[in-house]
Specification:
3-stranded antiparallel beta sheet; Ribosomal Protein L22, Chain A; two-stranded antiparallel ribbon
Length: 119
């Protein structure tokens, strides 16, 4: 199965999430929360939240025909040592997802590509 998903989101939508654990816990997985809580710069926190949200929406679009449904917290968007983003999905190991993320001051955008595991 192959598919693609994209999402763009305004960073300012997350202003009220930054200091609200109830709100950011609806989006972030436990691992992402650990990383989020170590960020001290407020605008990076906002960008981090917006970027993870855009990435998860893109992943959910790419997986739309998979027959599975996902909560935001089932999806982790992490960074390799070189900074490149990758996706970890809880309870759905049978696929590989390529992800790319970009931020401007105003927006965050993400593209996710679902490919067969053996490709
Ligand atoms: C990666 C790079 C292109 C990001 O570009 P930018 O215009 O500053 O920032 P953007 O907003 O477009 O992209 C940021 C996102 O790119 C992604 N990213 C970071 N490093 C990356 C890399 N090496 N490859 C692919 N994606 C990367 C991340 O997802 C990041 O968002 P996040 O930190 O919220 O997850 C830029 O920082 C760069 O060229 N860095 C050097 C990369 C490198 O490979 N260095 C190793 C030595 S050669």
């Amino acid at each position: 199965m192959k598919n693609i998903g994209i999402d763009i989101i305004e960073n300012k939508r997350f202003d009220s999430f930054i200091d609200n654990p109830r709100k950011y816990s609806r989006i972030l997985s436990d691992k992402e929360k650990d990383l989020f809580m170590k960020i001290t710069n407020k605008s990076r926190k906002r960008e981090y939240l917006a970027g993870r949200f855009a990435a998860k929406e893109a992943v959910i679009k790419a997986l739309a025909h998979s027959g599975y449904s996902f909560k935001y917290t089932d999806i982790s968007v992490l960074n390799a040592p070189d900074g490149s983003p990758y996706v970890v999905l809880e309870n759905y190991p049978a696929c590989k997802i390529l992800l790319s993320l970009s931020h401007s001051k105003e927006n965050s955008v993400a593209v996710a590509v679902l490919i067969d595991k053996d490709e």
